[in-house]
Amino acid sequence: MGRWWSPASAAVAEPRSVQLLLLGVALIAASFYAGTLFRSSTSTALIVPPSGPRSPDSSRSQVADAPMFTNRVSLTYRATPVSVPDSGVDVCPLEYNEYVPCHDAAYVRSLKNLDRSRHEDLESICPPREKRLFCLVPPPNEYKIPISWPTSRDYVWRSNVNHSRLAEVKGGQNWVHDKGKLWWFPGGGTHFKHGASEYIERLGNMTTNSTGDLRSAGVVQVLDVGCGVASFSAYLLPLEIQTMSFAPKDGHENQIQFALERGIGAMISVLATKQLPYPGKSFEMVHCSRCRVDWHENDGILLKEVDRLLRPNGYFVYSAPPAYRKDKDFPIIWEKLVNITTSMCWKLIAKHVQTAIWVKPKDESCRRRNADMKLLNICESNNSSPSWKIPLMNCVRMYSDHSEMQKLPSRSDRLSFYFKSLEMIGVTQERFEKNNQFWLDQVHQYWSLLGVEKSSIRNVMDMNANYGGFAVALSKDPVWTMNIVPHTMSDTLPVIYDRGLVGSYHDWCEPFSTYPRSYDLLHAFQLFSHYEGRKEDCSLEDIMLEMDRITRPQGFIIIRDEKNTLSRIIDLAPKFLWDVTTHMLENEENRTEQVLICRKKFWAII
C-alpha cells in the first residue's frame, strides 16, 4: 500500500511530489480521452454530442477519432412506467455533474414543513419519482481518472472536485491547499492544524493515561461526526482503525466528495431528527472535532444517539470551544454537556488542550439509579429493527444481561471470528466458515477476470453485503469497502460491525447519499431479485441508473442474480454506456452460474 507520510514529512516532500505529479499534467490534454493516467488499462474516450446547434467545426479536433453515441443530452425526469429510448438513456446536461438526488437543495427549499432549527433539511429527502432525474450524470469538464492510492491521500486532481471555498476558508487549518492542477491535503483539521498524526497520538495518551495508543485503548471502529475532508480517518489507517466518516451536504461545500476522491471512506449524513443508519453498539469511539453539532440542545437527544451507537466502555471525543474557552456562552454550554453526560453516567476521563473525552459505562447500575430519580429516561424497549429513518428517541437503552455482550477480539482476529450475533440470526459456524472460503475463492477469480492492477481500484461498495464475506476477502488488498445491508433484508449489519468492518443500512429504491463518481467497484449479489416485487416504484432500470451515477468512469460493476434478470441487464447495458462480459463461476452450492462484469465507459459531453 506504499509508505505513509506524517504531516511533517509530507510538508518537506511536498514540492518534489508536486513536481513528479505535474510531470504528467502536460499529458492530460492528450490522455484525458484515453483515461489512462495513473491507471493500467486503456480505452478510447466516448463522446456524447451536446444538444442544440453547433458549428460544423466545433470540437472537431477534440473528437477526431473518438466514437460518437446516440444518447441525447436532455434534462429527463422519471416516467411511469420507466421507458428507455432506443437511442439509449438520456444524458443530463453538464451542469448536473454533481447531482445528488436526495440532497437536492432546490427541492428541499420548496418544502415548508421541515424543522430547520434541527437541520432536518440536511437529512436525506428524496423527491417523488416524477421529480427525479432519469438521465446519466456526466463528468465535469476535464475530468481525469483519479490518482491511485496511497498518493491520493495527499493529492487529487483539482478538475475532479473543482471547488475552491474549502481551500480559501480552511487553508489556514491545513484542510486543503491549492497546488495548481492539484489539491494538496496536508493532513490538518480545525483542531489539528499541525496534523492528524500528532492529534491521534494525543488522543491515545488521553485514553490510556500515556501508556499506549488508540489501538491499545481498544479502539477498532470510529464514527467521525462532521468529518470534513476525512484526514482524521486517513491517519487512523496505519493503526488498523476503521472509520465511518460522515458530514452533511452544507456550506462546507463538497467535503465528502473530497474525502471520496482521496480514497477515504465517507458518506453524506447528518445528526438531526432521525437515527443514523448504523446499528447500535457498533463503535468504540465517536469523534467530534468542531463538528458543528449542538449536543447540549433538546435535552441532549443527539448525545443519546451517540450512546446508542457506542459499545460499552466506548469513548466520546469532543474537541470544540466549550471544552476549553471561558468567553461568550461556552461555559454555559459546557455545564449543560456535563449535566447531560452525568445523567447518562458517562465518565469524563480526560480534559487536555482543547479536547474532552468521556467513556460510556459498562455497568448499568448507575443508570438505573438515575432513572429511579427521574434524571434519565430509559427506552421502553430495545428496538432491534434496522436503524433506517427511525425518529430519534430522547432516552437511553439499557441491557439487563451483559453476558450477551461478547468480548471482541482484535480486528485481525475479528474478520473470521464466529460471533454470537451470527448465532442469533441462525447462521451456524459451519455455514459461516464455508461462506468465508467461498468469498475468498470468488474474489481471487474476480481479480483475474477484471484484468487490472489492484492499485486501480480503491473505493468499493458491496450493495448487498450479507455477513461481509466479500469485504473480508478484500481486506488484504489496497481497498476499503462500504458494506450496505438493505433494511428490508435480514439484519446482518451488526455482524459486519462485529467483524471490524463498516457499512450502512439503505433502501435501493432510493438513491444513496453520496456524490456521483464515488466508487471504483460495485458488487451486487442477488440484489435485483430482492426488489423484484416493487417494479412500479423500484425498477431494475432505477437501480442501474443509481449504479451508473455512483460509479467512476472506467469503474466496474459485478452482478450475480437470477438468469432472467441478468439477461435484461445484458440488453440494457449498452444504453447505459456500459460494456458487459459474461463469465461462469461456481456458487455456494457448487453449481455453475452466470456472472456479469460491467464496465462503465469513459465518456464526456463535448
Number of helices: 17
Describe the biggest sheet? 7 strands, mixed
**Sheet with the most strands: spatial strand order:** 7-6-5-8-9-11-10
Arithmetic mean of pLDDT: 88
Structural class: alpha/beta
Rg: 24 Å
Structure summary, number of beta strands: 19
Multimeric status of the protein: single chain
The stretches of 5 or more residues where confidence is low (pLDDT under 50) are 1-45, 52-63
Please give the share of residues in helix: 10-25%
**What fraction of the residues are assigned to beta strands by DSSP?**
15-25%
Calculate the terminal CA-CA distance, rounded to whole Å.
Answer: 36 Å
Shape: globular
Write the layout of secondary structure elements.
Blueprint: H1 7-22, H2 28-31, E1 46-48, H3 105-109, E2 155-157, H4 165-170, E3 177-179, E4 182-184, H5 196-208, E5 221-225, H6 231-236, E6 242-247, H7 255-261, E7 266-268, E8 283-289, H8 301-309, E9 310-319, H9 330-343, E10 347-352, E11 355-359, H10 365-372, H11 411-414, H12 420-424, H13 429-450, E12 459-462, H14 469-473, E13 480-486, H15 493-498, E14 503-506, E15 519-525, H16 540-550, E16 551-560, H17 563-572, E17 578-586, E18 592-600, E19 603-605
Parallel strand pairs: 1-19, 5-6, 5-8, 6-7, 8-9, 12-13, 12-15, 13-14, 15-16
Antiparallel strand pairs: 2-4, 3-4, 9-11, 10-11, 16-18, 17-18
